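Customer escalation, tier 2.

The customer says the design service returned an amino acid string that "doesn't look like it belongs to this structure." They asked us to rerun it and document both sides in this ticket. The original C-alpha cells are below, unchanged.
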C-alpha cells in the first residue's frame, strides 16, 4: 500500500492499522449450503418444499468429504474470522430421522471445526420433509406434526450448546419455518398462536447454557406457494423475541423489496442487546443471489459499524446459486461482505454525525460523496496481503483450476 493512501485516511482521522485489526476480528458465519444447493447428506433426492434452488452447474458437493474439501478451498480465500453455519441435514455417520438428530450426528463437524479454529452455528432443518403437512410445521393444526418439529428443535438446542462448549465460541441456533398459506386465510390467529406455543415448548424443553449459545427466530414476508400469509412474520417474531429475551434474525431478503432493511438495525439496537443477520441479495424477491458489493449491502455494513454493532451481531450469509461455480460463489459473496465492512470501518462517522447534529446537511452530502472516491481498494489489497491471501483476480483463476481438477470429475 502506498504511503499516500495511509495519509489520506489519517486526514479524516482514520487509522488503517486499527481498521484492519477490527475487520479481521469480525466474525462472519459462512453458510455451508451454497456448496450443495441446500441438499444435505440425508438422501440424494430433490428439495421437496419450503425452499428452492435453481441452476444445474456441475460439481455439486454430494457428501461430507466433498463438501469439506470445497469448504477448505473456499476458506483459503476468505479473510478474517470465520464460523461455519450448518443445518440438521448435514448430519454425518449413520443417518437418523430428523427428530432424532442430536449431538452425536455432529461430532465429525466439531472435529473439523476444532482442527481449523472455526466456530459453528446451527439450524434445525424444517423444509424438504414429509412431516411438513400442507407446508406447515410448528404452526400446523396437527399436534403430531408440531410435536415432531418441536423435538427436532429441542435436540437442536443440545447440538448448538455442544458447538458453543466444544469450540469456545458462542454458537447460534436459528429457527426458520416455511409455514404459510397460498390464499387468503380463513384464520390468521390460530397458526400464530400455535407457533407461539411450539416455540415456548422448545425454549422450555431444554435448559441450555446461555453463556455458550443464543437462539434466534427468522421472519419472512412470503414464499412461493405461500403468497398470502406467513405465520412467522416480522411483527410476530419481533414481539416473540423481545418477550422471550432471545434474538431476532433479519434476513435481508425477507422484506418487501422497497423496504430498507439497513434502516431497521438502529431501531432494533434500541431494544435488543444483540442481533442476528442472514445477509442475502434479493432480486425482485427473496431470490438468494450471491452478495454483490451494492448499496444495499453497504448500507447494512454502515449501520452495523455506526451502531457499534459488530460485536453485538451474529453476521451470517445466506444465498445459494446453483447456476455458477459454487466455491467461487461462496468466496465472492464473503469477500463482498468483508469489503462492505472494510469500507464502513474506513468511514469517518464522527465527522458525519457532527455535521448532521450541527444542522449542516450540505456538509453531510458533500462528505458522503467525497468519501466514495477514496482509495479503499488499495486498503483491501493490503488486508488480503496481511491475511496471506491472493488477490480477487488470482482467486478466480485458482478456483477455475480447482473446478477442472476436482469439481468436473465428480
Ligand atoms: C429461507 C431462509 C432460511 C434458509 C436457510 C437455508 O427463506 O432464508 O434462512 O435460507 O436456512
Ligand atoms: Zn435466511
Amino acid at each position: 500500500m502506498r504511503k499516500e493512501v495511509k495519509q489520506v485516511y489519517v486526514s479524516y482521522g482514520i487509522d488503517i492499522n486499527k481498521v484492519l485489526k477490527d475487520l479481521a476480528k469480525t466474525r462472519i458465519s459462512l453458510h455451508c449450503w451454497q456448496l450443495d444447493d441446500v441438499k444435505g447428506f440425508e438422501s440424494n433426492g430433490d428439495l421437496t418444499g419450503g425452499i428452492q434452488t435453481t441452476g444445474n452447474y456441475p460439481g455439486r458437493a454430494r457428501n461430507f468429504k466433498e463438501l469439506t474439501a470445497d469448504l477448505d478451498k473456499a476458506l483459503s480465500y476468505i479473510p478474517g474470522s470465520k464460523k461455519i453455519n450448518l443445518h440438521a441435514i448435514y448430519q454425518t455417520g449413520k443417518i437418523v430421522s430428523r427428530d432424532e438428530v442430536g449431538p452425536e450426528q455432529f461430532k465429525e463437524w466439531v472435529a473439523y471445526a476444532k482442527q481449523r479454529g472455526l466456530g459453528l452455528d446451527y439450524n434445525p432443518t424444517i423444509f424438504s420433509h414429509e412431516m411438513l403437512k400442507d407446508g406447515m410445521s410448528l404452526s400446523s393444526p396437527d399436534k403430531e406434526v408440531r410435536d415432531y418439529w418441536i423435538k427436532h428443535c429441542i435436540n437442536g438446542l443440545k447440538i448448538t450448546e455442544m458447538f458453543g462448549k466444544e469450540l469456545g465460541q458462542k454458537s447460534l441456533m436459528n429457527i426458520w419455518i416455511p409455514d404459510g398459506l397460498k390464499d387468503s386465510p380463513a384464520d390468521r390467529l390460530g397458526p400464530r398462536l400455535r407457533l407461539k406455543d411450539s416455540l415456548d415448548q422448545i425454549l422450555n424443553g431444554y435448559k441450555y447454557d446461555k453463556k455458550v449459545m443464543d437462539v434466534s427466530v427468522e421472519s419472512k414476508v412470503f414464499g412461493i406457494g405461500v403468497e398470502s400469509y406467513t405465520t412467522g412474520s416480522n411483527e410476530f417474531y419481533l414481539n416473540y423475541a423481545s418477550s422471550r429475551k432471545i434474538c431476532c434474525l433479519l434476513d435481508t431478503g425477507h422484506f418487501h423489496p422497497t423496504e430498507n432493511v439497513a434502516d431497521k438495525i438502529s431501531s432494533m439496537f434500541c431494544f435488543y442487546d444483540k442481533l442476528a443477520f442472514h445477509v442475502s441479495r434479493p432480486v425482485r424477491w427473496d431470490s438468494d443471489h450471491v452478495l454483490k458489493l451494492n448499496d444495499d449491502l453497504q448500507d447494512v455494513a454502515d449501520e452495523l459499524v455506526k451502531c457499534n454493532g459488530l460485536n453485538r451481531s451474529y453476521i451470517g450469509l445466506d444465498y445459494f446459486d446453483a447456476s455458477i461455480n459454487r466455491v467461487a460463489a461462496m468466496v465472492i459473496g464473503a469477500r463482498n461482505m468483508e469489503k462492505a465492512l472494510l469500507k464502513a470501518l474506513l468511514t469517518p462517522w464522527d465527522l458525519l454525525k457532527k455535521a448532521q447534529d450541527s444542522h449542516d446537511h450540505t456538509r453531510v452530502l458533500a462528505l458522503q460523496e467525497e468519501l466514495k472516491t477514496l482509495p479503499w481498494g488499495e486498503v483491501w489489497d493490503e488486508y488480503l496481503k496481511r491475511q496471506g491471501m491472493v488477490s480477487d483476480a488470482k482467486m478466480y483463476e485458482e478456483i477455475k483450476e480447482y473446478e477442472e481438477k476436482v469439481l468436473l470429475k465428480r
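Tier 2 assessment: The sequence is consistent with the input. Residues 176, 218, 251, 278, 318 surround zinc ion (ligand 2) (CB under 6 Å). Residues 19 and 59 are 37 Å apart (CA to CA). Sent an explanation to the customer and offered a walkthrough call.
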